[in-house]
């Protein structure tokens, strides 16, 4: 057994209460399949696929081998004005995987970069069509679109925005769709709330469609605590956008690559956006990478002007990084060979039944689920928002289970390789904890 006794001062940890954490660090030193191992040698069952990214489980051998082979072949080639075979191959594979005419992949290094890239592409598209006034970007309350300035501006999670203003000015927000009074304990899509999409008509009446470039939403909002779209909501948004010549972006950083039991939420719901942002499951979290999938319509409108000119003044040194592409191609192979999207689809009913058994506990005010995602919302303690769920987090970790919490919501999103038996372990562990909170 090893123990962790390193100095922790220099590492400024992201989205972490650094001072509290460093008094009692939780440190992972290895991971395999469904489990981490901590510095103290404890096995921890991964209830959230890392941070919603390790969909094929930890340490997948095929993905690891592909990365190792590429390390020996070439670890970098310039992203601008030069290419390498894996970037073209990976883009083509993604174009085949995503529905409709989302035939073009712009590579980034994270979900945040994917979002800012997509927002910029939408503005550039409108400008290229001569619609220079169409610049407004519409997000949604409780939306999470990463931490860069564009994504923060359209995002709707207050603490993430508070310290950083002013953000982009030409932005507005739709209302969120969470409505426990009407939809508590929904299984799958909640029944009520499609009408919330009509609020886009109000924003169009307020600003004019001629000023709006794009709407961005997570088809299922993950970070805000698993907000499943009401029945008919996404279809309505799609229609209103189409009727008013507004682009629709689905932020699928969490939902793409099997989380809902399909390649992506657009395929799952049968609603076709103009752009899809991805990251996370794109490479199974093995090498950082994001991709924006762009429709023919948007892409082709920007392929104009003299052929020797850059069409889109945008990109990253590490766009299409060779190691990330190697990881991504192998990840897609693993998803297909192991039928992991189908597995998520097939496990979803078992998952749903198991999770909803937790509804019996006092203090549980909602259980909701879709695909291999679940949330348990707890009644906050008086004057201590988030305390109850965080206590559950600490107790779960002690008991060998990793969960995510946001405010008083426990979010679950295990790797898609999870077994029914492991689902039982997650639910039984939470059952014990929720009985004593
Ligand atoms: N869009 C969406 C929909 C996301 O969920 C991002 C963009 C940003 O991705 P990057 O790669 O820049 O972090 C995300 C990220 C959680 C959690 O536990 C969620 C995310 C990241 C970390 C934790 O809810 N989502």
Describe the structure.
With 437 residues, this protein is of the alpha/beta class. The chain is built from 16 helices and 15 strands. The strands form three sheets. Strands 4-10-9-8-7-5-6 form a seven-stranded mixed sheet, sandwiched between helices. Strands 1-2-3-13 form a four-stranded mixed sheet. Strand 14 and strand 15 (409-412) form a beta hairpin. The longest helix is centred in the first third of the chain and has 18 residues, at 111-128. It starts with 17 loop residues before the first helix and ends with a helix. The protein binds 3-[O-phosphonopyridoxyl]--amino-benzoic acid.
Keywords:
7-stranded mixed β-sheet, 4-stranded mixed β-sheet, binds 3-[O-phosphonopyridoxyl]--amino-benzoic acid, Aspartate Aminotransferase, domain 1, 16 helices, 437 residues, 37% helix, alpha/beta, Aspartate Aminotransferase, domain 2, 15 strands
- Count of domain modules: 2
Q: Any idea what the shape is? A: globular
CATH homologous superfamily descriptor of the largest domain: Type I PLP-dependent aspartate aminotransferase-like (Major domain)
Helix content: 25-40%
CATH class of the largest domain, anyone? Alpha Beta
Quick gist of this model?
It contains 16 helices and 15 strands.
